[in-house]
Amino acid sequence: MSPQSSISRPLAPSTSPAPDRTLPAVSIGLVVAICLVAANLRTSLTGVGTLLPAIENGSGLTASWGGLLSTLPLLTFAATSPLVARASHRFGSARLLVAALGALTVGTAVRSLPSVICLFAGTVILSAAIAFGNVLLPALIRRSVPAHRIQGVSALYITVMGVTAAVSSGISAPLSHTLPGSWHTALAWGVAFSVAAFFVWLPRMRGDKPQAGDGVTRSPVPWRSGLAWQVSMFMGLQSLAFYTAVAWLPSILIHHGTSGTTAGWMLFYYQLMSLASGSLLPLFTRGRHDQRWTAAGGSVVLAAGFVVLLSAPGLSVVACTLLGLGTGVCLVLALTFQSQRAGSAGEVAALAGMAQSIGYLVAASGPLLLGILHDATNSWTLPLVVLVGLCVAMAGAGYGAGRDRLVRYSAR
């Protein structure tokens, strides 16, 4: 008997995985460990944007190479994510996470060395390590956290991820002016989080047996599941909207007469609203497994933000409020679906690997596509119209992904 195609089945009490009913309450130690991993998932990436002018000036990189440096992590995520489920099955999730945290520390250090080759090589290493963390963390949460706590814990780690990302964006440039080594040193400050997470997770490797050694069948990637594709496309489109906004929102506002300083503060406000909505979402959806209208509604709010930015750019506060509210809701749901729509930790790793591989490949195209459209039309009108259309498509994917169902595997 071998796994065939993945199908969607209704989620009923009788089909809920038994381990969820016997899991103990979430310990403070586990929450701290999860949050430390979350602190590493964006910190090493978001500071690059503010340092990019200094990096280009100091290393002689052209703007095109600087753009590649910004896109390289997303491409690495897309290439690496499908490998995580197989590796997790062979080595164990906690062991693999510790190895990824060690690789993240090494990659961050290599990236900060005074060499263009090290700059790109370190970026690939740390991005691959982050990709492993992106996939493993939902699987570990699914295995260690009771079902009714998954969304709350997911929202917490997403909040930590967002806060540390915002802090990294804000302090990287000042650190480059005050620390010896300029931008090289500023690129390496996040290593403190990876070292701390490494030592916190090191004791948690005890008892983490590889699934292959327990006779557990590895879950294949559910390429044939419609539900898995809806989860993946929802992940991809919300990531595209976020990374595109981070890359181009200040430029759009400046194009319409906003000062550079104000545009920077509006980007900060956008991220603040995203954190707020993501943190509050579990309070309004507690105990609700059907998230169809929540996912579709968040996508529509995000689309409305782009519509305001397109039709009334002077109302930038309104636009950024809507964009932030929609982004926070969609991000929490996109990551939560990867845990809720699978029946076991192994299936979570397989689904998360698929969702994040496709998702980051889609996301990588967003900033580049908008830049090409803007250069071709010398206007932000067509790029924003395209974003509105993509948000409408995201609403459809979210409505499907939000159904109270599980991705299952049938046997021949």
UniProtKB/TrEMBL annotation:
Q: Which Pfam families match?
A: MFS_1
Stated name of the protein = MFS transporter
The signal sequence is: none
Q: Which terms in the Gene Ontology molecular function aspect does this entry carry?
A: transmembrane transporter activity
Top-level lineage group: Bacteria
Which InterPro entries does the record associate with it? MFS, MFS_Cyanate_Porter, MFS_trans_sf
* Membrane-crossing segments per the record: 21-41, 61-84, 96-113, 119-141, 153-171, 183-202, 227-250, 262-281, 293-310, 316-337, 349-374, 380-402
Keywords of the record, alphabetical order, are: Membrane, Transmembrane, Transmembrane helix
